[in-house]
Amino acid sequence: MHLQENIQQPSSKNTAQAMFSLNGKTAVVTGGGSGLGLAIAKALAGNGAKVIITGRDENKLQKACEEIGNACCYIPADLSQLQAIPAFVEQLIQRAQTIDILVNNAGINMKKDALDVTDEEFQNIILTNQQAVFALTREISRHMAAAQQGNIIMISSMAAHYGLPKVVAYTASKTAVEGMTRALAVELAEKGIRVNCIAPGFIATDMSAKALNSDKDRMQRVLARTPMRKLGHPDDVGYAAAFLASEGARFITGTVLAVDGGNSIGF
């Protein structure tokens, strides 16, 4: 076989608009009721996808769907209940027929001195941020593999890139997520499934506002280390997810994309 036969030739139909459109795609976004999950769901819907958001707070999910519009629906779920995940995925398939995009956004954090973290607290973070992510990805990937196409996006954190105090369990879980991204990308590529990860930096959310607005010194350190000298907006993460989910990113898999204004390479 000649090398030229393996090169995907450009088509006149592959306009920029078509390559970045998500029309006809169905996406599942975990933790889609607020924060980054909501921003991701909005961006995917804005690019043409039908979006199913999930989470534990039904009121948040309902309000989020009202905000996004007709392209969105929700199914409440507690993904920390691992044994219930296969039935939940079947419920998703019954609702959507097919799942083209999965965004593993849901996660929890805990700020506590490492020496005071109990085994139970550590395991609780790992259960939600790592084990549930794998279990859901495994079950949905089975359906994607049958269709020979799919797109999985993990959400990590800058905590996986350098040491942050008081978040040892969270850091461990997000570092594992980045490792899973690379391992799954290699294993699932032959099944037509791409797997990528987004590592948000300091984003202006309600959570970061509580942490930074009350600690001016920390805010200054964050901005001083960030070459762009500002916090990101949740939409910045949403747009990155929409790109990775599109055909415009068709030759990208196994990557961890930092959306951080340069914070991870700042000095």
UniProtKB/TrEMBL annotation:
One of its GO terms (biological process) is monocarboxylic acid metabolic process. It comes from the Bacteria. NCBIfam families: PRK07231.1. This is NAD(P)-dependent dehydrogenase, short-chain alcohol dehydrogenase family. CDD domains: SDR_c. Pfam families: adh_short_C2 (PF13561). Transmembrane segments: none annotated. PANTHER family: 3-OXOACYL-(ACYL-CARRIER-PROTEIN) REDUCTASE, 3-OXOACYL-[ACYL-CARRIER-PROTEIN] REDUCTASE FABG. Belongs to the short-chain dehydrogenases/reductases (SDR) family.
